[in-house]
């Protein structure tokens, strides 16, 4: 049985912080595999700046040298208005029937689920395991204890992880730097930086 983490994001673009986070979680949670899951550009709650093909290609370039990492285009292939994390996790559980599948997310998202802001949030929590990464200013234990949705399933399914080092460089910051003619070369993998320059991405 393998231990697998599902790591979803827009990856627009993928950054060194994404890779560092995935590596840290894999090491500390003893994961055999981390699956990078780029979200659909059709999602109403996301503003994607780049074509799916470019985001997908950059993820592939970024993870190519780490055998623990793979990518899945499942959400990219769905209609944006029909995508719920509950259905995504059901897809991965059925795809990996013999394995233990975990959803990787930040403490801010855990709070949103606990507050009832996610569609099918109750079922998502009831049927899955989670790796929750600390976010500045969020008390994860308190977040769980204050929410009926979360605390009624607090049976070990939440693996709370404090990364130990705050690295808050975002994809948004990189896009803004590139749009202003900045130089964020060392904030993302070299291959992705070269790809962005080659395809003139994120320019005004």
UniProtKB/TrEMBL annotation:
<keyword id="KW-0520">NAD</keyword>
<keyword id="KW-0808">Transferase</keyword>
<dbReference type="InterPro" id="IPR005248">
    <property type="entry name" value="NadD/NMNAT"/>
</dbReference>
<dbReference type="InterPro" id="IPR014729">
    <property type="entry name" value="Rossmann-like_a/b/a_fold"/>
</dbReference>
<comment type="function">
    <text>Catalyzes the reversible adenylation of nicotinate mononucleotide (NaMN) to nicotinic acid adenine dinucleotide (NaAD).</text>
</comment>
<keyword id="KW-0547">Nucleotide-binding</keyword>
<keyword id="KW-0548">Nucleotidyltransferase</keyword>
<dbReference type="GO" id="GO:0004515">
    <property type="term" value="F:nicotinate-nucleotide adenylyltransferase activity"/>
</dbReference>
<comment type="pathway">
    <text>Cofactor biosynthesis; NAD(+) biosynthesis; deamido-NAD(+) from nicotinate D-ribonucleotide: step 1/1.</text>
</comment>
<feature type="domain" description="Cytidyltransferase-like">
    <location>
        <begin position="6"/>
        <end position="176"/>
    </location>
</feature>
<protein>
    <recommendedName>
        <fullName>Probable nicotinate-nucleotide adenylyltransferase</fullName>
        <ecNumber>2.7.7.18</ecNumber>
    </recommendedName>
</protein>
<dbReference type="GO" id="GO:0005524">
    <property type="term" value="F:ATP binding"/>
</dbReference>
<dbReference type="GO" id="GO:0009435">
    <property type="term" value="P:NAD+ biosynthetic process"/>
</dbReference>
<keyword id="KW-0662">Pyridine nucleotide biosynthesis</keyword>
<comment type="similarity">
    <text>Belongs to the NadD family.</text>
</comment>
<dbReference type="Pfam" id="PF01467">
    <property type="entry name" value="CTP_transf_like"/>
</dbReference>
<keyword id="KW-0067">ATP-binding</keyword>
<dbReference type="InterPro" id="IPR004821">
    <property type="entry name" value="Cyt_trans-like"/>
</dbReference>
């Amino acid at each position: 049985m393998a231990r697998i983490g599902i790591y979803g994001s827009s990856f627009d673009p993928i950054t060194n912080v994404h890779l560092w986070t995935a590596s840290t979680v894999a090491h500390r949670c003893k994961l055999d595999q981390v699956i990078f899951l780029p979200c659909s550009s059709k999602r109403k709650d996301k503003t994607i700046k780049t074509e799916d093909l470019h985001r997908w290609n950059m993820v592939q370039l970024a993870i190519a040298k780490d055998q623990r990492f793979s990518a899945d285009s499942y959400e990219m292939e769905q209609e944006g208005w029909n995508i719920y994390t509950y259905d995504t996790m059901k897809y991965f559980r059925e795809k990996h029937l013999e394995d233990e599948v975990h959803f990787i997310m930040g403490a801010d998202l855990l709070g949103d689920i606990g507050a009832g802001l996610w569609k099918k949030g109750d079922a998502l929590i009831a049927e899955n395991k989670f790796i929750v990464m600390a976010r500045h200013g969020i008390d994860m234990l308190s977040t769980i204890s204050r929410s009926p949705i979360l605390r009624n399933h607090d049976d070990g399914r939440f693996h709370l992880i404090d990364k130990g080092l705050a690295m808050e460089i975002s994809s948004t910051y990189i896009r803004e730097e590139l749009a202003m003619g900045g130089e964020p070369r060392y904030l993302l993998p070299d291959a992705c930086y070269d790809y962005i320059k080659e395809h003139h991405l994120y320019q005004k």
